[in-house]
Amino acid sequence: MTIRDPRAVRIVGDLSGLPASASGPRHLVWWGNIGFMLIEGTGFVLAAAAYLYLMTQAPHWPPPGTRAPDLTWALIFTCGLVMSELPNLWVRRCAVAKDVRGVRIGVAAMTVIGLLLMIPRGFEFAHLNTHWYDDAYGSVVWMLMILHTSHIVTDWGDTAVQAAWLFTHEVGDDQFADVEDNANYWTFVVVSWLPIGAIVYGLARWS
Amino acid sequence: MLGLDMRWQLSTAENTRMGPQLFNESFSLHGSTMLFLVSVPVMEAMALWLVPLMLGQRNMAFPRLGAFSFWLYLGGVLTLWIAHALDVTPDLGWFEYPPLSGPAYSPGHRADIWAQMITFTEVAALCASVNVAATILKMRPPGMTLARMPVFLWAMLIASMMTILSMPAIMLVTSMLIADRLVSTHFFAPDAHGDVLLFQHLFWFFGHPEVYIIFIPATGFVSSIIETFSRRRLFGHDVLVLAIMAIGALAFGLWVHHMFAVGLPRLGNNFYTAASMAIALPAGLQIFCWIATMATGRPWFPAPMLWILGFVSTFVIGGLSGVMTASAALDLQLTDTYFIVAHFHYVLVGGAMFPLFGAFAYWYPKATGRMMSERLGQLAFVMIVGGFNLGFFPMHLLGLMGMPRRVYTYPAGMGWEWLNQIATLGSVIAVGGGLVFVANALWSYWRGAPAGADPWGASTLEWAGPSPSPSWNFAYRPVIDSLTPLWREDGSELPVMEGIAIERREVLVTSVTDAAPLYRQQSAAPSIWPLIAAVAVTAMFLGSIFTPWAIVAGALPIGAALTGWFWPRRERAKTGPLRVRT
Predict the structure, then answer these.
(1) B133: which chain A residues are within 8 Å (Cβ-Cβ)?
(2) Looking at domain A39-206, does it have CATH number 1.20.120.80?
(3) Would you list the domain boundaries of chain A?
(4) pLDDT at position A2, please?
(5) Contact B260, B208 (CB under 8 A)
(6) For the segment B103-145, what is each residue's pLDDT rounded down to a tens digit?
(7) Is the pLDDT score of B497 beyond 90?
(8) Which residue of A has its CA nearest to B562?
(9) What is the pTM of this model?
């Protein structure tokens, strides 16, 4: 063994001219966001798999005497959720364009939209026509609904805090990237509902 | 120590050192601790320390997330062990299958403590994995393309991806178990159309990849150590990387081999038998690459390299007994016997702990600036590897003779006593070796010979700077032009780039495939908020053992802590309706 000093170095370039921020997949935090979407997406897939597993094991689905969840509020919620993608994508575009006024208005609007969507979501729970303590069908339906609703609520909290910050502070490049990430996350919440909603409302009718 | 106590209990027939309850608690605590609180976290801890060093970076991508994951991990440790001190010890093994763990058969909170300990450690592991993956993908030094990434970094990246894709399963299933116990859901209640096997499917969808989440980082250690001490570039670098990827993919298709005995359709059993045997192929390729590296290099065998020899020989035995139990027909005979206890200890201790001990000895000089005693290192190696094999090999025979696992005692006249006594003797020797290893680490910390920057003449970046590494790791960003950047045949200096700020915390972010410099990212300063957030999450997790309302009540403090954590510090608005008016 030889005691060696730290390696001698030879400077071959200068990085000081690089920008201090970036957006989209170039940004570090974008990848962190993707990582957490992957975790939560895996959770959704496995919860859906649990539903399908229990469905295939049961002689009747839903169990005799249990009506499938009512569709009215689910359709209102789904339409509202899908349409929320229009302002959401607009906010995202404002963030990429570094439009301060646009992101302030857009994020505030998304906060209101998130709050409004919780109204039909609340009615959905009242019209599931089963309780979590009734049987395994009720348990797994409530699990899927709570899992998705928790994403609506947490993203709404995130959006509300972001709106408050954006209106009270000077917006820098990293915050535009944060708004973009938050918009991407909402898209994840919207897209993940489509298969989950189809399972909860569709398979109870057409299995 | 728990293991040794259990070995003492089993060393004679009808021993009264332990009753059944204490024995149940002992193996549950031993298994849960070693799987959830040691094996996975210790590999992630190695990643959190070594990944930025091997990338020539100053820090991880998300340092506050790293702090948060540590505090949550500590919460998991304290949950299990404080509960143990209060005599609320889980007693149903390291996988708590319902219906035994359900509300009907396990009143009290032992099962809840186990389930919630898992929630703690899995959230911690998931946060750490996102951190490691983002760091490796986006913070490689200029020139370190994916093709020039050391096997160690590939191993950590793939293990992190596996964690991200498998650990949600255990979080989901333990949450379902807690819900069955706390709010009367019926996921696992057959009389309400639930299914107990759903628990096993979800548990093992996580549980089998977990074995490889532990093993794959170890292959990274092994690759680094073998390359350094063989004094040649790894033989078959690309094959090793592809083998790790193959293991990572196949690991998700094996979980049912833990469930051969539950009566699944024969076609399913056949499929999982084939898949379980198939994974031996990439594992075998790795072994051959390592052997070829040693055979064609100029190997020398200080303590870290001895551990690798111990690993190869022990892991091959464990792998072969794995191929045996992959056969559904044979597994039906061997399941729940000591053959399985022998198999998984050979795989986990031989396949992960021996490389970890080697890694500890190998990187100890980098962490402390001092060398470990070679003589004590050799003594510890001989005692641990010898004691381990003496202790666990007889368990194969005990299993074949029919001794079931998880029995607190057995009647005299079964012919099991002498093999159990050999196993106990081996365990005593191995634990003695462990004490020598710890004593060596402590003694060397103060009395070890100075190590210098690079005592082994290694090839990767962590050895470029002083030992121990300063808190900023590197002053300059290295530029990488080969797989072995410190082995410069022309004797030239290490090429580096300047320009990353030294007056503030700043890191270089690069592109995913080519590691081309993109921008300079300000790195987060130390903060109390990750600790506060972890305390708030801990309160919610613990409260939810007793009432579901803890989740509602806990949401507000958690939200407040996360807001404090992420609230950007910038000047007040000069425009808009809420601007500062002067």
Answers:
(1) 31, 35
(2) yes
(3) 39-206
(4) 66
(5) no
(6) 999 999 999 999 999 999 999 999 999 999 999 999 999 999 9
(7) yes
(8) A158
(9) 0.96
Cβ separation B172–A174 shorter than 8 A: no
Across the range B386-412, mean pLDDT stands at 96
**End-to-end CA, chain A:** 70
Q: How far is B244 from chain A (nearest CA, A)?
A: 20
Contacts 24+ apart (CB under 8 A), B512-517: B512/A25, B512/B137, B512/B138, B512/B146, B513/B145, B513/B146, B514/B145, B515/B140, B515/B141, B515/B142, B515/B143, B515/B144, B515/B145, B515/B480, B516/B142, B517/A15, B517/A18, B517/B142
Determine the 3-state secondary structure of B248 from DSSP.
helix
Taking contacts as CB-CB distances below 8 angstroms, the residues of chain A near B53 are: none
Report yes or no: B114 at the A interface, CB cutoff 8 Å.
no
* Residue A81 φ then ψ, to 5°: -65, -45
Note whether A165 contacts B567, CB cutoff 8 Å. yes
Distance from CA of A197 to the nearest CA of B (A): 19
What pLDDT is recorded for position A5? Answer: 83
Q: Which among B180, B466, B499 is the nearest to A14, CB-wise?
A: B499
The whole-number pLDDT of residue B570 equals 84
Q: Which of residues 531-560 of B touch A (CB under 8 A)?
A: 559
Residues linked to residue B126 through DSSP beta bridges, in sequence order: none
The string of DSSP codes covering A59-122 is SSSSPTT-PPPPSHHHHHHHHHHHHTHHHHHHHHHHHHTT-HHHHHHHHHHHHHHHHHHHHHHH
Q: How confident is the model at residue B78 (pLDDT cuts 50, 70, 90)?
A: very high
Q: Do A10 and B493 touch (CB under 8 A)?
A: yes
Per-residue pLDDT tens for B22-73? 999 999 999 999 999 999 999 999 999 999 999 999 999 999 999 999 999 9
Which residue of chain B comes nearest to A135, CA vs CA?
Answer: B192
pLDDT tens track for A150-180: 999 999 999 999 999 999 999 999 999 999 9
Residue B190: is its pLDDT beyond 80?
yes
Q: Which residues of A touch B466 (CB under 8 A)?
A: 6
Query: Band of the pLDDT at B423, cuts 50, 70, 90?
Result: very high
Q: Provide, rounded to the nearest whole percent, the portion of chain B with pLDDT above 90.
A: 88
Q: With the C-alpha atoms ordered B312, B313, B314, B320, is the resulting torsion angle positive or negative?
A: positive
Q: Are strands B494-498 and A9-14 parallel, antiparallel or unpaired?
A: parallel
Nearest to B168 among A6, A46, A135 (CB): A46
Question: According to the model, what pLDDT value does residue A1 have?
Answer: 58
- Taking the C-alpha atoms of residue B177 and residue B191, their distance in angstroms, rounded to an integer, is 16
Pairing, β B517-522 against β B506-510: antiparallel
User: What beta strand segments (E) does B199-318 contain?
Assistant: none
Tokens of B323: 């191929």
List B residues 309-348 in contact with A (Cβ-Cβ < 8 A): none
Average pLDDT over residues B226-255: 95
Rounded Cα distance between B283 and B287, Å, is 7
Name the residue facing A11 among B194, B202, B496 (closest C-beta): B496
